[in-house]
Amino acid sequence: MHYPTHRLYQLLLPVWLCLALLAGCGAATSTSEAVNTPRSVTHVLSPGQQVAITATDTLRLERVNDSRCRTGAVCVWKGYVSYSFTLLHSAGATDLVLSDSMPNGASSITINHLTFTLLDVDPATPPAVDAAMPTYRVKVKITQGALKH
C-alpha cells in the first residue's frame, strides 16, 4: 500500500537535490567574489612603529615633518604637517608621504593594490612656542583593492 505522502516525497526528492546542487554552485561563486572584494582597515601609528598589512606588505611611519606655525609665534606662513611612510613589500620598499595641507601633497595615495588615506592626526593643532615636541600619532585607513587575475 502506497501512501500519498510517499508518492509526493518521490516526486519532490529530485527537485530538492537539484536545488541543493544549484545552491552549492552559487556559493562557490559568492566565495570567489568575497575574496576579491576590497577591504579596509584603520591603524594608528607613531614615528618608528610599523604594521603588517598583508602577508607581504608592511607599513612603517618613518617621521613627521611639522612646519606649522607654533601657537604664540609670529610666522610668515602657516606651514604644514606631513607624514613620511615606507611600504615594505616583496619587491623592495616604496616611500610615500601623506598630508592634508602640504603644497602639492595628497591625503590619499594608491600603490599597487593598496590605498593609504590620512584620517586623523594628533596633535591636530601645533604646540605652543615653548612646549616640548609632542608625540605624534596618525590614523591611516588602508584599503586593499580587488586583485586582478
Describe the protein's architecture and organization.
The protein is an alpha+beta fold and 149 residues long. It has two domains: 1-35; 38-144, Tick-borne Encephalitis virus Glycoprotein, domain 1 (Sandwich). It has one helix spanning 4-35, and strands spanning 39-45, 50-52, 58-66, 81-89, 92-98, 108-111, 114-122, 137-144. Strands 1-8-7-6 form a four-stranded antiparallel sheet, with no helix packed on it. Strands 2-3-4-5 form a four-stranded antiparallel sheet, with no helix packed on it.
Brief summary:
The chain is α+β, with helices and mostly antiparallel strands.
The CA-CA distance between the termini, in Å, is 59 Å
For the residues shown, what is the average pLDDT?
A: 80
Question: Given this structure, which CATH class of the largest domain is correct?
Answer: Mainly Beta
Sheet/helix structural class: alpha+beta
Features:
149 residues, alpha+beta, 2 domains, 4-stranded antiparallel sheet
How are the elements arranged and paired?
Elements: H1 4-35, E1 39-45, E2 50-52, E3 58-66, E4 81-89, E5 92-98, E6 108-111, E7 114-122, E8 137-144
Antiparallel strand pairs: 1-8, 2-3, 3-4, 4-5, 6-7, 7-8
